[in-house]
Structure formats: C-alpha cells, structure tokens
Design a protein that fits this description.
This protein has twelve helices and nine strands. The chain has 319 residues and is an alpha/beta fold. It has a domain of 213 residues.
Length: 319
C-alpha cells in the first residue's frame, strides 16, 4: 500500500501511458488533522478596490459626496456627525456591494480580478489571509466565506473560482486535485473519479458562501429567528454557526470525528472580532467541546496573518 501511495504522489518518468493518464490520488490526506477556515473577504483575503459612497460634512456645514474604502469605512462608520449615506439611504451607500443585473458586469468579480492582479504584480500588497486562503485551497480543506457584502452565494463562489484560476500555479492546481481525490477516496470510498472540472465543482459545493446582507441570507436569518431584526455582527455569528454545524455533520458522516478538529476565523473588523470571540466563548465552545476555536484579528495590516486570539484550545492553525 505504501508503494502504491508513493507512486500516486510521485509518478515515475518511466510510467506507462496508461499510468501517466491516471489521476493522482493523495491518500495521505487521511493522516492530516481536520482544520477548517472561516474567512472574511475584504481586506482579509483581498484588498478590494470597491468603494462605499458616503457624504462628508464640510467646514461650512454642507455635505459633499465622499467615497471611501472598506478599511476607512470601518473607522468612520461610527461618526454620523461627519459621515452619512446619500439621502440617508444605506442601500445607495453600498451599491457597489450588490450584484449587478448583468452578471458579465458584476462588480465583485471585476474588483476581485483587479485585486488579484495587484497581488500578482506585487506580492507585498497581499491581504493578511491571502496566503492562508491559497493554502486552504491547495490542501483541499473546507472553508466558509463570511462577508458583510450583499452578493449571492453563487457570486461569492465565482469569486473563489476566479481566485483558483488566477492565483494557483499548475503545480498548485495539481496538488489540490490530488488532495481532493484523496479525501473522496479515503472518506467517501470513491475510486472512480470525474473530470478535474467535476471534482472541483463538487469540492466548491461543499463549502459555504455567506454574504450576510444579501436578500437570500437576510430572509433565511429572519425566518429562523422568527422575524427578529438582526445586526451585521449577529449575522456573522449565525453564518459561523451554520458552517460549524455543516462541518460537524460531514465529520460525523465520514467517521472523522476521532481526529483533532479545529476551526479558525479571521476578520479585519475589530467589532466583528470581538462579537465572534464572545459568541464562541459563550455558546460554540460548549456546544462543540471537541472543536478547537481560534480567532485572528487582521485589522493591523503590518501583522502578517493577524493577531491570534485563542478562544478554545491551543492548536495553532498556522494563519
């Protein structure tokens, strides 16, 4: 068995044409611990050029249009004396954070492409969790995107696919596919695989894509909470619980609950970080006592990987 695994991982140059065409299956994934990731998108995975449209009070008291980045907004959003949405309408402020009517003109995908190009041209401009997300994909681990944006889950998934296509090298892509087949072989007893495209689509379908201000997410949250009004931080808590429950069901189904399990959450907004850490400490760590929870505050761009806050357990998730 060991020789067979080595052959799958490092095919010999002298392999027959039939062997050379056999998809690589990294069965050694069964030796890995179970690490899962929940990541905010803006200023965490990518520094997006998307702007929030506000009005700013001038010295003479007049209000003038003033567009800001998400990083600046996290600072000025609590200053209503000097910043306000256009005509008091927050939907107008966040117009760039919604899906366009024509998918081909979708702002999210356009801005994601621009942000990725910037990193490829200058790696030093990468957001704090860029490398973590890349490694997550290459290793074929499950993840959730949880963002305050208002896009559909399908749009976020397309953004992840764009990241895969633009950021992963051919070698990265090959390693990812070998790991994905390995997980399917070891935990789902699959031996006959689909095409790379089919296996990648299956993997992407297993992950979660939560834009917490989207109409679909809002309808789900208010429906499950009996119509109660829910703020952004509470929505992120809801999304995190959904992903942890999803992961727990998968681990239970595949018989992988006996391994060390850890979930890492990273976000650049201090308010979200505080709310999530409190939520984990007060609810999730008792509800899921076998899962290690670690939160990473990426609000300081100069701290690569962010500031680690261990909420439950001591396992280093490697952000």
């Amino acid at each position: 068995m060991e020789n067979m695994q080595d052959k799958n991982l490092n095919p010999r140059a002298s392999a027959s044409p039939r062997e050379a065409n056999t998809p690589r299956v990294n069965r050694r994934v069964i030796e890995r611990d179970s690490k899962f990731y929940i990541l905010d998108w803006d200023n965490n995975i990518l520094h997006m050029p998307t702007r929030i449209h506000l009005e700013k009070r001038q010295p003479d008291g007049a209000w003038q249009p003033h567009a800001v980045s998400t990083a600046v907004f996290s600072v000025v959003r609590n200053d209503p004396e000097n910043y306000r949405p256009p005509e008091g309408d927050w939907k107008k402020a966040f117009v760039e954070f919604q899906d366009a009517g024509d998918v081909s003109e979708n702002r999210f995908l356009r801005d994601a492409a621009l942000a990725i190009n910037r990193v490829l041209e200058n790696p030093e401009t990468a957001a704090p969790s860029f490398k973590t997300f890349k490694r997550t994909l290459v290793e074929g681990r499950l993840f959730a995107i949880v963002t305050a944006r208002g896009h559909s889950a399908a749009t976020l998934r397309k953004g992840v696919r764009l990241f895969i296509d633009r950021v992963l090298s051919p070698e990265d892509r090959a390693e990812m596919m070998a790991s994905l087949r390995g997980y399917r072989a070891c935990y789902d007893n699959v031996e006959h695989f689909g095409t790379d495209e089919e296996e990648l689509a299956y993997y992407l379908s297993l992950n979660r894509y939560h834009a917490v201000t989207s109409p679909a997410f809002e309808a789900r949250v208010t429906g499950e909470l009996g119509g109660a009004e829910v703020g952004q931080e509470a929505r992120k808590q809801f999304a995190i619980r959904d992903f942890v429950q999803h992961v727990f069901r998968i681990l239970e189904r595949t018989g992988a609950l006996g391994k060390p399990v850890s979930v890492g959450f990273s976000d650049d907004d201090p308010g979200n970080i505080s709310a999530v850490a409190s939520y984990i400490a007060s609810e999730l760590k008792d509800r899921f006592p076998n899962i290690k929870f670690v939160v990473y505050d990426t609000s300081a761009p100069h701290v690569e990987g962010g500031r680690k806050i261990t909420v439950s357990g001591q396992l280093d998730l490697g952000f």
